[in-house]
Each structure stands twice: as C-alpha cells, then as structure tokens.
Amino acid sequence: MHPHDYIGEVPDRLPPELVRELSRIDAVRGLFAILEEWLAILAAVLLCEHYTWLYPLAIFFIGARQHALAVLGHDAVHHRLLGRRSLNDWVANLFLWWPLFATNEVFRRYHGPHHRHIGTDQDGNIELWRLRGADGRPTREWTYPKTAWQLAAKLLWRGCGLTGLGLLLVGLLRPFRVVGPTYGLVRLLALASVVAAFAAAQRLDLLLYYWIIPFCTWFIVSNYIRLICEHSMVRSDHPVYALTRTTVPTWLDLVFIVPRNISYHYEHHCYPSVPFYRLPELHAAMRRLPGYRKHAHVTHGIGSALLECLRRPGGAGEHA
Fold it and tell me: What is the per-residue pLDDT for 221?
C-alpha cells in the first residue's frame, strides 16, 4: 500500500511480490539522476557560451532538463527518491523544486489527491491546473479534441513567457500561505542568495538566458504537452483504463518532452510506489496481463498522442 494509491478498484493487479521488488528505492540511482541533469545543464551553458549560435537549441535542451528536475521532484513527492522521508524532502527541495520556484510540500498537497481521486471532483489537478469552471464542466482550454490551430495557439500562448512569469511569482509567494511564513522566508532567502552570487560575479545574464528564459518557454510548453497526452482523449471500454494514457516515448521524446519515463503514466497511477527508473520494467510486466493488453490506451510517441487529441473532420463531440 502507498499513501497515494487510487481509492477505486484497479483491475488486473500484478503479484504483490513483484510490485514490492519494483518498488525498491535505489538512492544512488536517484542521486545520480539529479547530478546528471545538473551536469547536462552546465555542459549546455558552457557549450553555448563558446558557440552562441547554439542558443536556440539550448533553450529547448535546458527547458527539458528543468522538466526532468521536476519529474525527479515528482518522485520525491511520492516518497520514492530517498528512503528516509525527511532527507527525501529536503534534497528534493534544495536541488529540484526550489530552483523551479516550487516546493515539494505544495505540489504534494495537490498531487496526492490527483492520484487517490483521479477523474472525480476531488482530483487535485482540477484546482492545480484549473481544469474545470464554476459549473463543473471542463474549461475551454482543457476541452478536447481541438483543431491543430487551437492546439498550436494554446501551446504558443503558454510558451510566450507570461505563464512562466506568473508561475514564478506564484511559486515564490504560495509557500508562505500553504507551508508557513518561516519556511517561505528561508526559501526566499536561499533563492535570493543565489541571485546575489550571480550579481556579485556580474553574470546575472546567465540566470536570465540559461534559466529564466528556458523556464518561461520550453519548460512550460513541454509540461503542457505532457499533461495533454496523459489525460486527454483517452479511449478505452474500461472506465479505469480510460483515466490515463501511456505513451511509449521515442529517444527524442525522452530528451526534449517527457524525461525520466514519466510518460508510462497508466502504470504510474496503478503503482505510485514504483520509482521512475523501474517504470519501463513495470510497463513490460503489465503488458503480460490480458486485461492490460485488451483495455489499456498505449500510444507510441508523443507526436502520435497529440494527434489523437486533435479533432478529425466529421468527428464526434468534445470532452476533456
């Protein structure tokens, strides 16, 4: 049992002993993944400083690495990064969430209910991403299918910088209310010390070009793409399998859009105890289940998943 397990009945369960084995935490792999992502960001900055024409590609690459940090932080939200929970949370905050203007504690507040109550009025994603209006119906933004132009316009709008700046400001202030003023102040001072260090070195431009701009553009866009593919236009004749799609990623997807196996999403919702590095193994195990093979919505490639969310000529009506 995991505190974020779905409260409903999950069909086609794997043997408990296999789930326990797949749920084992390997702290070394988790810590190495954090180091790997930060080294990749540093390498991109150093390379781009020498070859400035690479900067447009660096925006996509660093934004995707920021997304990878969030995915690793997501494992910490599920207590799967490190075995000791207090250490799990502090490592996640210092090296994953705080640099992204977020916190482990705030995201867990929404993400736990998303897992336990997915698809119901208590789903934490409804409040976090504003999925529904006051009438309880999906908002226009989260109504699918869309035309290709509507989808492109949504992603361009979200990636123009305003959403990222808004998320940055909200992320700086929300912990004061949700976690507490002392925590919020300590976090704000920690972030301010980083800015002060760059200012003392007279290199605030590095923060702007290699952190804020990727964050406000591709980090935001890749997150929206992932969210769309996870829960929009999922087709299955079984209500539980219809809650989320699994997308088997290409290598380009892994590098730029859905890092660290986050797109094995049905599997993750069934077993949130399984850490990110064992999700492909979990997927392989679940493919052997007859019910999974019959009912699961599995798509190969993020591009194909997005195409499934587009309106076809003469297609059916819209839904979330």
Answer: 98
Q: Judge contact between 279 and 267, C-beta under 8 A.
A: yes
How many Å from the N-terminal Cα to the C-terminal Cα in the chain? 30
Give the closest residue to 240 by CA, choosing from 275, 263, 266.
Answer: 266
Residue with tokens 């789930």: 19
- Mean pLDDT by runs of 10 across the 320 residues of the chain is 93 96 98 98 98 97 98 98 96 98 96 96 94 91 96 98 97 94 96 97 97 98 98 97 98 98 98 98 98 98 98 59
Q: What is the pTM of this model?
A: 0.96
Per-residue DSSP letters for 250-315?
-HHHHHHTS-TTTT-HHHHHH-TTS-GGGHHHHHHHHTTSHHHHHH--EEESHHHHHHHTBPPTT-
Strand partners, 146: 310
| Residue corresponding to tokens 């900067």 | 55
Angle between helices 148-158 and 220-231 (to 10 degrees): 140
pLDDT (0 to 100) of residue 317: 47
Residues facing residue 310 across a β-bridge: 146
Q: Which of 279, 282, 280, 276 shows the shortest CA–CA distance to 81?
A: 276
Structure tokens at 216: 């406000």
DSSP H or E run through 206: helix 204-207
Q: How does 210-224 read in b/e, with b if 16+ C-beta sit within 10 Å?
A: bbbbbbbbbbbbbbb
* Residues in contact with 167: Cβ distance below 8 Å, sequence separation at least 6, in sequence order: 101, 220
DSSP code of 232?
A: S
Q: How far is CA 136 from the centre of its chain?
A: 24
Distance CA 297, CA 15 (A): 22
Gap between the Cα atoms of 229 and 227, Å rounded: 5
Tell me which residue of 277, 256, 262 sits closest to 44, measured CA to CA. 256
